[in-house]
Amino acid sequence: MEYVFGTKDGIEVLKTKGSSHTNLTGFHQIEQVYPDQTITDNFRVVQKLDSQEDVEGNCYDWYEIDHHYRVTDKTAPIAAKVEEYAASMENALCEQDAATDERMGALEDAVCEQDTSTDSRISALEDAICELDAAINNK
Fold first, then answer.
1. Distance CA 109, CA 86 (A)
2. Banded model confidence at residue 127, pLDDT cuts 50, 70, 90
3. Best exposed site among 21, 36, 105, 139 by fewest CB in 10 Å?
4. CB-based contact 65:45 (threshold 8 Å)
5. Element (H, E) at 48
6. How far is 14 from 5, CA to CA, in rounded Å?
7. H helix and E strand count, the chain
8. DSSP 8-class letter at 85
9. Which phi and psi (to 5°) does residue 108 adopt?
10. Which residues contact 24 (CB under 8 A, 6 or more apart)?
């Protein structure tokens, strides 16, 4: 069903187009979803104005309406983009964490090598001091 809102002769009107005729009365809410937005129309049917059919079998109905208001919601595509960006950020952070872990591993290995080297030098200095001490005490 297609819905077209407009004005004619100073009154608000609704035209419907579909495979069968409609008989709308009272208050209605129509939601139309598009890729970039959702449009919700709320209105009250005052009276049916006309009905017609075309040669292709489409049925048209015109209504006088009032209390019509429209809400346009464009948040769905924005929310999808936000989710996409959040997923990208999460992936980037995971990659950054992996790279940081790799660098930390390399730094820890370097510190361990430095500790081993420092221990060897300290041992060599202690041995040299002992030799000097022994040489001084033997004289």
1. 34
2. confident
3. 139
4. yes
5. strand 37-53
6. 5
7. 1, 5
8. H
9. -65, -40
10. 14, 16, 45, 48, 61, 63
Q: Which two tokens stand for residue 30?
A: 């129509």
Q: What is the residue-averaged pLDDT of the chain?
A: 92
Q: Helices marked H in 30-138 — which ranges?
A: 75-137
| R_g of the chain computed on alpha carbons | 41
Single-letter code of the amino acid located at 114: Q
Report whether 38 contacts 82 (CB < 8 A).
no
Is 39:31 a contact under the CB 8 Å cutoff? Answer: yes
Amino acid at 126: E
Token code pair at residue 139: 């004289």
- Statement: the pTM of the whole predicted model exceeds 0.90: no
Tokens 């209605």: give the residue. Answer: 28
**pLDDT band (50, 70, 90) for residue 20:** very high
Distance CA 47, CA 65 (A): 7
Tokens of 89: 């950020």
Query: Beta-carbon neighbour count of residue 77 at 10 Å?
Result: 13
Sequence length of the chain is 139
Which is higher by pLDDT, 65 or 114? 65
